[in-house]
Design brief:
By secondary structure, this protein is an alpha+beta fold. It has three domains: about 10-30 and about 400-524, no CATH class; about 45-145, Histone Acetyltransferase, domain 1, CATH 3.90.360; about 155-195 and about 230-350, Gcn5-related N-acetyltransferase (GNAT) (Aminopeptidase), CATH 3.40.630. About 35% of the residues lie in helices and about 20% in strands. The protein has helices spanning about 20-25, 50, 75-80, 115-120, 125-135, 170-180, 200-215, 270-275, 280-285, 310-325, 340-355, 360, 370-375, 380-390, 415-425, 430-435, 450-470, 475-485, 490, 500-515, 520-524; strands at about 45, 50-55, 70, 85, 90-100, 105-110, 155-160, 185-195, 230-245, 250-265, 290-300, 330-335, 400, 405-410, 410. Strand 11 (about 290-300), helix 10 and strand 12 (about 330-335) form a beta-alpha-beta unit. Helix 1 packs across helix 20 (about 500-515), helix 15 packs parallel to helix 17 (about 450-470) and helix 17 crosses helix 20. It is globular.
């Protein structure tokens, strides 16, 4: 369900499924769920997750059988939704990356073709070919494995470094790490940008990072190497080897720890209507064409280094990059996991604590504008931080103030009215509470009292149901917007049953499918 109190990319989505249920009261919606049914595993098939292993080593170790193999998190992006490899006896596939420049080698083996493959009617899976096709990179030819390369140096601009102590290691642990690596270890960060004049080697390196990420990030799309908005932040373990110098220059061995891809894009429409809900700094944004956002698209710490503090160090560095960019409005993350969100919030709270600014978010009138300008926090993130710290203003969802009055986003609302009217179209109280998690203080800025706020929230909930109707009936996003513009919000307040919504909406949907504009016809 789309709760439409804000437009553009900041629209938030909360699902209840009510609209599809109501639509089926009128007529059945075609069920295309069969296209998502996985093919059952047979005796001639193997689960790709059990076959593929991702490994890391030095260039002279890529064919070694002693390297640790890590199970990928996702294989459907390479082998299809059923995640099966057909036609082999005991298949095994290693995708091994050089630990510094990520040059990859694919090695596949089996005990032979399964004798029943032809009888099964299935085709022999081209394992190596599938990886080349769906995770493209400059894979090393088997005959070139073990080839010596010049000493590796990280690409891009050096940013910063941190030590083992900075990630919480004690003296003994740092000493053991240095002894294990054969030198003095520190961790270095670099940033490399996509550009029109970047070398083939840099392009190949970008492709290698994407071919690796596809095994660990769901629904991954390769970054566009012709778009200068893209860049990558890289973290390396850098070991200055003991007693190894060439022409009085110390030899440093690098191992990739992790990387994040960033996309800096321009805000193309900075009208008051578009930006009033994403920043309080309107005088700095409205009407300008040189305001940007920074998106974290991919964020990956390699398995060996996970849960050791490296992700937090890289996230802090990304915030430092954002905070130095005067033309940047805020920093966003694409589809973050719960674990990533927890890490991100902890870092943001630490940043506020270090600057002695946490009290600003604990009060009842936080300086939203100055906090966003300083830290490049997204406004939704700021409100979440405020809620974490106990601020009554900006709290998301249905709360109670100190006098026991129901509030939404810090605004007193007649929630009894909202609950009663929402129940007419089939919403439970908990479903209403879930939907209202999307409300921000700006959404209720111009309401005149608890009843007025309740009326506005109710219309928004009904409009969300209307949007679900449009989606369930196969309308495009643009057509759903057209549908919402065509609905008379006054008539929504008169609804007495779920069927009333259907009777109001389905004729409008029919007109839109025929290429007609219901709003224009109503205006005429």
């Amino acid at each position: 369900m789309r709760l439409r109190l804000r437009g553009g990319s900041d629209e938030m989505e909360y699902g209840t499924g009510n609209a599809s249920k109501f639509c089926k009261d009128i007529h059945e919606i075609p069920d295309d769920s069969s296209s998502w049914i996985r093919r059952n595993k047979t005796d001639v098939s193997s689960y790709a997750m059990d076959v593929v292993r991702i490994r890391f080593g030095r260039h002279d170790q890529l064919e070694s059988g002693r390297l640790v193999g890590y199970k990928p998190l996702f294989v459907h992006q390479v082998f299809g939704y059923d995640e099966l490899i057909d036609g082999y006896i005991d298949p095994s596939c290693n995708v091994t990356y050089a630990e510094d420049d990520l040059r990859p080698l694919i090695s596949f083996s089996s005990k032979g073709k399964h004798p029943d493959i032809e009888k099964s009617g299935l085709n022999l899976t081209d394992v190596v070919g599938s990886i080349h096709e769906h995770a493209p990179a400059d894979y090393i030819a088997v005959q070139e494995a073990g080839k010596r390369y010049p000493p590796f140096k990280p690409m891009g601009q050096y940013l910063n470094y941190y030590s083992g102590y900075d990630i919480g290691l004690c003296e003994r642990e740092v000493t053991e790490m240095n002894e294990q690596r054969g030198g003095s270890v520190r961790f270095e960060m670099y940033q490399c940008h996509v550009s029109s004049d970047m070398s083939p080697e840099i392009k190949n390196f970008f492709m290698r990072t994407q071919s690796l990420a596809i095994w660990f990030i769901e629904a991954l799309s390769y970054i566009e190497l012709d778009d200068p908005g893209w860049s990558i932040v890289l973290t390396y373990e850098a070991t200055t080897l003991n007693s190894k110098k060439t022409a009085n220059v110390e030899e440093v061995r690098y191992r990739l720890v992790g990387f994040a891809t960033l996309y800096r894009h321009r805000l193309v429409n900075t009208t008051m209507e578009k930006v009033k809900d994403i920043t309080p700094n309107l005088e700095d944004v409205v009407g300008r064409n040189d305001i940007f956002r920074l998106n974290i698209s991919q964020f990956l710490i390699l398995p060996e280094y996970q849960r050791k503090g490296h992700g937090a160090q890289m996230m802090r560095q990304i915030y430092k990059i954002a905070m130095k960019d005067d033309k940047l409005l805020d920093l966003q993350v694409e589809d973050p996991t719960d674990g990533f969100q927890e890490m991100r919030m902890k870092i943001e709270l630490d940043m506020l604590r270090e600057s002695k600014l946490m009290d600003q978010l604990r009060g009842n009138s936080p300086s939203w504008g100055s906090l966003q300008k300083k830290y490049k926090f997204h406004m939704v993130e700021l409100f979440d931080l405020a809620q974490k710290l106990g601020c009554k203003v900006g709290r998301r969802g249905v709360k109670e103030d100190s006098s026991g009055m129901k509030t939404v986003a810090g605004v007193v609302v007649n929630m009894t009215y909202v609950y009663e009217r929402s129940a007419i179209v089939g919403f439970t109280m908990s479903e209403v509470d879930d939907v209202l998690q999307a409300i921000l203080p700006e959404d209720l800025r111009q309401t005149t009292g608890p009843q007025d706020a309740a009326e506005k929230l109710l219309v928004a909930i009904y409009m969300a149901v209307v949007a679900d109707y449009g989606q369930a009936e196969g309308l495009s996003d643009q057509q759903v917007d057209q549908l919402l513009e065509s609905v008379d919000s006054g008539r929504l307040k008169e609804l007495q049953s779920p069927r009333d919504i259907a009777r109001l909406v389905l004729p409008l949907i029919g007109m839109i499918k025929k290429g007609l504009n219901p709003k224009a016809m109503t205006d005429d």
